[in-house]
Design brief:
- The chain is an alpha/beta fold.
- It has one domain: Rossmann fold (3-Layer(aba) Sandwich), CATH 3.40.50.1820.
- Helix content is 43%, strand content 15%.
- The chain contains 8 helices and 6 strands.
- It has helices at 14-22, 50-64, 75-86, 106-123, 139-142, 160-172, 188-191, 193-205, and strands spanning 2-3, 31-32, 68-73, 91-97, 150-156, 174-181.
- A 6-stranded parallel sheet has the order 2-1-3-4-5-6, sandwiched between helices.
- Strand 1, helix 1 and strand 2 (31-32) form a beta-alpha-beta unit.
- The protein is globular, with a radius of gyration of 16 Å.
Length: 207
């Protein structure tokens, strides 16, 4: 189950999925679009909260079948962690690609939210949809140790902002492997689909 990041869509996973299929990984691949993204509906402002996004993810996971391996990039990784907290029985494993667990520090959270507002203005996203990428609390990072699903962490070599999250994940989660993709940035899955797919396939073989 692939969940993309903010200001992106499900096609971001095309390269990874194609490489997985070529390698005959033997697993079913489902990629979906967050609300306000790609081919999904565009609700009015006020309907882009974390709870809205998690309800959407839960429906997709249930339709695809559980337990599922949740693969998430950036915001998609954060939502995958949140889903694992709410529905642990539905999660076979987690693959966190350039993802973070949120912020405990109020100032850091505000800085992140300000950067989201700046990006929303730059990319002209649907009105109100920037809220889906904002953080309102430290619920996920405060409860990481409650997540028991085996986890793979993938980050790009040059993605310094999210590289720090790998150490947090290794401290609190059951991280089986952390993979750094050479010469890659934040969009590691889009530009380096083959090595990302290889890391995922090897992780799945070990489950």
């Amino acid at each position: 189950m692939y969940t993309h990041g903010w200001i992106d869509d499900s096609t971001a996973w095309d390269g990874v999925i194609a490489a997985m299929i070529d390698a005959d990984s033997g697993v079913e691949h489902v990629a979906w679009d967050l609300r306000g993204h790609g081919k999904s509906d565009v609700p009015p402002p006020g309907e882009y909260t974390r709870d809205h996004a998690l309800a959407d993810l839960a429906r997709v996971v249930e339709e695809a079948g559980t337990p599922a391996v949740l693969v998430g990039h950036s915001l998609g990784g954060y939502l995958s962690l949140a889903h694992a907290l709410v529905h642990p029985e539905q999660v076979r494993a987690l693959v966190l690609v350039a993802a973070g667990p949120g912020f405990r520090n109020d100032e850091a959270r505000e800085q992140w939210n300000d950067s989201v507002d700046a990006s929303a203005a730059k990319f002209q996203v649907p009105e109100g949809s920037e809220m889906i990428s904002k953080h309102i609390d430290s619920w996920v990072i405060d409860n990481l140790d409650q997540i028991t699903a085996p986890t793979l962490v993938i980050v790009g070599e040059h993605d310094k902002r999210f590289a720090a999250s790998a150490a947090v994940f290794e401290k609190y989660l059951d991280v089986r492997s952390s993979v750094v993709i050479a010469d890659a940035g934040h969009s590691v899955h889009k530009k380096h689909g083959a090595p990302v797919a290889k890391a995922i396939a090897e992780f799945l073989e070990g489950l």
